[in-house]
Amino acid sequence: MKMKKVTLIIILSVLVGLSGMMAQERYAIIDSTDFEELSLGEAVRIGLENNYNLKIEDNFREIASNNVTLGNAGFLPTVDGNASMRWSNEDVEQQFVSGDSQTRDGARSNTVDASIDAEWIVFDGLGMFKRYEQLQQQEMTATYSWKNSVESTLYQIAESYYNLRYSAEQLRVLKETMEISRARIRIASDKYDVGKTSKTELLTAQTDYNADSSAYINQLNQLQQATINLNLLLGQDSERQYYASDSINAISLYSYENLKEEVLKNNSLLKQAESNKIGTTYNVEIVRSERFPRVTAFGSYGYSRLESQAGFLLSNQSTGFNYGLRATIPIFNGLNINRREQNAKIEKDNAELSYEQVRLEVIAEFERTYSSYQRALGLIELEMDNTSIAKENIEIAFDRYKLGRSTFLELREAQKNAEDAKLRLLDAAFAAKILEIQLKRLSGNILEERERIN
């Protein structure tokens, strides 16, 4: 039993030592040129080029743009070419007015018709004008939908990009903690060798170093996950390794009133809901236009030839134009126009209600985001002070420990305080950066940011 216990201790010691070596080796790889430096502007460019959802949304926008034509609205005439040939074989018995009669079995007749026919609706209660305006509004709605998709994608890319930088900064803090723990082991070992401290202190220093190594390795996994997530958004191979070169510390300051005004003016979701609301008003007017007379001009040029073995004519051929005007006046169609107009009004009311709901949701999201953004900025100032104090405290505690004027517990506490302060500062800076990007998205300025970083 004792032998098993000794063997287990040896195995654990080897594993811990390997973990520390793996952590150091991995960080050496991070500092090497194997990691490709990537700016936010480049990440955005790659992501927008490769994102399939944006390509689909752009196709929808192109479809809406293609639909905005005079022909689709009903302004232009329709021209058709028609041709037909008919053959018949009939038994004929005819009695003429003159008293003559004719009987023939298997009389054949052939008819050939060809024409070019045109129709042009010259008046339909102004419905064609409303349809054209509606098509233009639908194009505008599709554009706002596309813009919203682009903004959402930009936000996701920026969030993932800064998360990669955030994870790397956390790794740097944990590496600094490991270096202090490694130095502490050397000092404790030297003291133990000359009999100035107990083995307990040396073992505690090694245990703390192993705990720091474990935290470091866990953070390496977080960094790798952040890299995979970014590659997914960029449409890249998951094995590509990037170093995010843009800092999370560059944070803009915004005025509440100016930003709220821009949100109400430029928010793509709000503009899309507003455009959809306007579009539904045309449905009502288009249905109402059906109550008016419809005037259609028509004309055709035709050719016709008949050949028959029985009857008054053995052959007949004609060519020429015919044209005219046709007026259609709706008198009664089962009250369907009334029903469709009522439904169009309900759809219009629903669109107005939907707009008001979206407006409330956008304002509420802005209020929440701006409030969190202000708190994050306050936390940055506080944690900067804490980090400065903790840095000075760890330097003093380390010097005192080397001189034997403080215990390893005091040094460890100062060490953890410094680590926690740095990590909290990173948390606040990352939160503020993401909230800043969210504010840009809500205010419709994230596309302008894209132009700036490119």
TrEMBL record:
One Gene Ontology cellular component: cell outer membrane
Location (main, coarse): membrane
Keywords (A to Z) from UniProt: Cell outer membrane, Membrane, Transmembrane, Transmembrane beta strand, Transport
Subcellular location: Cell outer membrane
A Pfam family annotated for this UniProt entry: OEP
GO molecular function: efflux transmembrane transporter activity; porin activity
Residue ranges the record marks as coiled coil: none
Family in the record: Belongs to the outer membrane factor (OMF) (TC 1.B.17) family.
Name of the protein described by the UniProt record: TolC family protein
